[in-house]
Amino acid sequence: MEAASGMSSEGRPIQCKAAVCRRAGEPLVIENVMVAPPMSREARIRITCTSLCHSDITFWRMKDPPGICPRILGHEAVGVVESVGEEVREVEKGDVVVPVFLPECGECEDCRSTKSNLCSTVRFRVSPWMARHESTRFTDMKGNPIYHFLFVSSFSQYTVVDVANLAKIHPSLPPNRACLLSCGVSTGVGAAWVTAAVEAGSTVAIFGLGSIGLAVAEGARLCGAGRIIGVDLNPDKFEIGKKFGVTHFVNSGECGDKPVSQVIKEMTGGGADYCFECVGMASLVHEAYASCRKGWGKTIVVGVDKPGSKLSLSSAEVLHSGKVLTGSLFGGLKPKTHIPILAKRYLDKELQLDDFVTHEIDFEDINRAFDLLLEGQCLRCVIWMNK
Fold first, then answer.
1. Where's the Alcohol dehydrogenase-like C-terminal domain (predicted)?
2. Peptide bond preceding 27 in cis form (omega within 30 of 0)
3. How far apart are the first and last CA of the chain?
């Protein structure tokens, strides 16, 4: 590692520790890896801390493409720029940055528009390579390639990230809170704030009160929603949800013969103004859509379903109901634009981040984080790389 040699590491490979997924579904292996210098429009980052998102679990289990091994997972993190490649102007050595799976080049038509956060220069895709160069920056100690994950790969003490996937933040933001803005919390808050544009006094229904659903509730609370209905099978989620603004709770396992949509329509006098599917199940998307008010109801799909899942809506229902169904990747946020805003709102004590962090562990215990999430014992587990 850089510190061990006492020499500058710029332009040279760095040896460091990484947690490598060698086989799908098996515990990660902490081993020495080599991290190459950044190429053009890339930066090498020293990761301060990272957190575990359920998407990491999904791809960790995946045996078929886009699952691939060996791979360095992790995509919620914060770190410090160690060095930059050619043509990098956005960040410099020493900057504190949040890497994000969704790019924002700032130059294409989509990035310049307020209508989209889907960059067309550096397109989002689930790739084992770097964003612009079809190659990896990781190799094991035998020189064999190790693949990337969601353009971030934060389960490594050092990683290389395209500058389009980096948001610069103020260094005063605590790292064990800053990493949450890299994916889950930003996605949920943004879904309410940007994608749905929840109005003050409106009614919101959230299907699934995991981290993403609770972040949607937090976003709806910040927007001034009048009623925030949480739908979940676990009644304990209601007490947790109250911290983030949930005002009403529906236990989907105790609705008797009524579908959840009917219960919500009766509660709201016709349906919620905004419904959010935060689990990743096609059946719940249908239920959320049915729970929306006719004429102006809006259903936002936030959860990540398994590859190949399909929706089946009646054409007549779509035509006659006048409702909207839309997806929300990264909550509709533009990373470089909106993450600094969320960071400031946290520092101004407006945005709630603290209660999302239920556990903090050292890097060598990273497999414990997987156990905690799989057992339903945590919202977010922060992993310190060199505490």
1. 212-332
2. no
3. 16
The one-letter amino acid code at 232 reads D
Backbone phi and psi for residue 235, each to the nearest 5 degrees, phi listed first: -65, -25
Q: Are 50 and 76 in contact (CB under 8 A)?
A: yes
Q: What is the DSSP letter of 129?
A: S
- Give 172's contacts (C-beta < 8 A, 6+ positions apart): 347
The single residue listed with the structure tokens 């060199």 is: 386
Q: Is the pTM of this model over 0.90?
A: yes
- Tell me the C-alpha distance between 72 and 31, whole Å: 11
Residues contacting residue 192 through CB under 8 Å, at least 6 positions apart:
198, 204, 216, 217, 218, 219, 220, 222, 223, 225, 274, 276, 331
**Longest alpha-carbon distance in the chain:** 69
Residue 18 CA to residue 363 CA, distance in Å, equals 9
pLDDT tens-place string over residues 185-237: 999 999 999 999 999 999 999 999 999 999 999 999 999 999 999 999 999 99
Tell whether the torsion through CA atoms of 62, 65, 70 and 73 is positive or negative: negative
Q: Is 221:200 a contact under the CB 8 Å cutoff?
A: no
Residue 202 tokens read as 């409106």
26 contact partners, CB below 8 Å, separation of at least 6 = none
Give strand ranges (E) for 252-343.
274-277, 298-301, 324-327
- Report how far residue 256's alpha carbon sits from residue 43's, in angstroms, rounded to the nearest whole number: 55
In the 8-state DSSP scheme, what is residue 105?
-
pLDDT tens per residue across span 347-384 = 999 999 999 999 999 999 999 999 999 998 999 999 99
Q: Which amino acid is at 280?
A: G
Residue 154 near residue 141, CB atoms below 8 Å:
no
Q: Note whether 334 and 111 are within 8 A (CB).
A: yes
Residues 6 or more apart whose CB falls under 8 angstroms from that of 124 comprise 101, 102, 103, 118, 329
Instruction: For residue 43, list its beta bridge partners.
Output: 84, 161
Given phi > 0 = left and psi -120 to 50 = alpha, else beta, which region is 356?
alpha
Query: Under a CB-based contact definition with an 8 Å cutoff, are residues 61 and 97 in contact?
Result: no
Q: Round to whole Å and give the CA distance between 328 and 245.
A: 21
